[in-house]
Amino acid sequence: MRASMIIALKDLSQRIRDKSAILLGIVAPLGLALIFAAIIPDASDFTSDIQVGVVDDDRSAISAPFINDVLPSVEADGLLTVESYDSAETAIAAVDAGTISAAYIFPEGFSDSLQAGGEATVEIVGNVDDSIATQIAKAVLDSYLAEVDAVGVAVGAVMVSGGSDVAGIAQSVTASTSAVVLADVAAGNRELDATTFFSAGMAVFFLFFTVQFGVSSLLEERHFGTLPRLLGAPISRWSVIGGKAITSFVLGLISMIVLAVATTFMIGAEWGNPLGVLILMICGVMSALGIMALVAVVAKTPEQAANYQAIVAVALGMLGGTFFPLSQGPRILSLFSKLTPHAWFLQGLGDLSAGESLKAVVTPALALLAFFVVTIGIASIWRKEVLAP
Amino acid sequence: MNVLECEGLAKAFDELVAVDDVGFHIAAGETYGLLGPNGAGKTTTISMISGILESDAGKVTVAGKEITTRTTDGNAEIGYVPQDIAIYPDLTARENLRFFGKLYGIPKASLGPRVDEVLEVIGLSDRGDDRTEEYSGGMKRRLNIGIGLLHEPSLLILDEPTVGVDPQSRNSILESVELLGQSGTAVLYTTHYMEEAERLCDRVAIIDGGKIRAEGTRRELVELVGQRDTINLGVIGSAYRLVEALESMPEIHKITAADASVEILVDGASSVLPRILEVAQQSEVGVSGVEVVEPNLESVFLHLTGKALRD
Lengths: 389, 311
Ligand SMILES: Nc1ncnc2c1ncn2[C@@H]1O[C@H](COP(=O)(O)OP(=O)(O)OP(=O)(O)O)[C@@H](O)[C@H]1O
Ligand SMILES: [Mg+2]
Known about the structure:
Oligomer: heterodimer
Number of helices of chain A: 17
Number of domains of chain A: 2
Mean pLDDT of chain A: 79
Bound molecules: adenosine-5'-triphosphate, magnesium ion
CATH class of the largest domain in chain B: Alpha Beta
Number of strands of chain A: 5
Number of helices of chain B: 10
Strand content of chain A: 5-15%
Order of helices and strands of chain A: HHEHEHEHEHEHHHHHHHHHHH
Shape of chain B: elongated
Largest interface: A-B, 23 and 31 residues
Strand order of the largest sheet of chain B: 6-7-8-3-9-10
Low-confidence stretches of chain A: 160-189
CATH architecture of the largest domain in chain B: 3-Layer(aba) Sandwich
Largest sheet of chain A: 5 strands, mixed
Strand order of the largest sheet of chain A: 2-1-3-4-5
Structural class of chain A: alpha/beta
Shape of chain A: elongated
Helix content of chain A: 55-70%
């Protein structure tokens, strides 16, 4: 341990001296986060004056979360203003009168019919003069139902103009079915706001470049011929590896912490519960360490290692959704993204920011540690060669 | 007392046998040379002795402590100077020395003074705070050696420390090695310069193809192969007349003549030379110069391996 510390201190002073670690670890991610935050409008800053109504004749486990959780949070984001109506008739009348732009109608027996294996329809009645509002209202419901993955739910949007009758509307609704099992309903608003997203995304993206300094300095030792000296010194071989790991870890963690603090104060990023963030950061740094160690072990020269590491860092960063939120891409992408530490890190932060308790970081943290264990395991098979003079 | 003892050392890289059953010992204050051409197995042998490279077979002890790649105890007894310059270019000489000093466990209080001392010895006191990337090749070489001396090891291993060094630096390096030997340090010195081995080493091993071909003092080695002295005469007059006159002498093994010189191979130049000069006078051949060349390690090497030390 003492020898590892001596080696790490030497490495850190070298890295601070050549400034590249500071550049890649702090300046670049901070700069990009600032630029992204400045040019990309935050969804939560976007407000509209769309007013919608909602009628719940069903009062079921499917309609309630939408009305009690989803709509209020959409309302909190300033996208919609929601009003409740007692009956379908009054809601449609309000649409007709133009008081509201659209109305959600959960008919009586909606969930019963679903549970019986049949089909059911949620109606959205929209004002013909305001089709954009109707589309937005429909999109909100669609995304909820996609989360719910309910069997046989059909969403029908109908444009009404004055004097239409409810029965007619019900019949003209187009029915669509999706045969999926009922899934987790509690998926609230887990997305980071744009500022925090870009801050965290850039931090974790560049983390993979920062930890590389410690890892590839092992190759550098061989290049400078100093590795035989280290191997000949009265220290164990593990303490050489340990020194490099400490260097990587310290550089990675410091850059993450500096970035979190800087983005919080400079652009108002909200990273969430500091303890949870710290846990995610530590596990994230370790996952990056493992992956970059594996890449370095496969490479033959420091130059080759740097190239491979850049490719891997960029590829994982892209796939892991550090440049754009995964929810905006196809679902398959977000599945694949779980193969990257980046996605787990961002998911952990998202859960934290949704105000969930510290428990929310357990799964992402364990996933990140799994990356570490697996990659270090594979890398250590090569250990002998890494330490050959 | 032997500081270094090694026996049966062997190492193969895939098919290539780099070192094969190498063993020797070095006493305190003794300087031992490994003399051999490129690829002879010198560096491989040294790497195993210093616990850097895992050996396929054999045993090494330094100051009574066993050395392998997994031991750490005995390593502090060894000072290792790699063949290739092994320093951090982005650190100063002082920082390089301090780093390795800490790694070798030199106590904090004595580290500073010891670093100054070594800087003095290697003649870098006034450049100690410059980054080593700004150094000349010779300065880097000297620092490379200084790192090995730093912790005052009982065994100093130098792997061709004078390669690519100007004559002046080389001389100062050789002088420091001589001083270390006198101060009681055991020195293992590899080289393919015959002159260095002759000047520095109390005993020399001739290594080629991974095997020690012969070992001993310079005299012993020369006698071992029964090498003869060479007398070179510069002549005024007919070299051929002199050759004719000398040919019948039994002590002369071989005699060849060129334009104005004669090369004579004899057993024991000192006893034969007066008679040769006498014969020259009698045959009325003038002698303008006499040079006696005793057999050297180069010729021993040639005899043992059938090839020259340097290509
Ligand atoms: N890591 C290695 N992998 C494969 N072969 C090696 C390795 N190290 C040395 N060799 C081979 O082992 C043999 C001995 O090499 P070694 O470096 O010990 O020679 P040397 O006597 O130090 O030569 P030089 O005077 O050129 O430094 C050579 O044929 C060399 O090619
Ligand atoms: Mg060598």
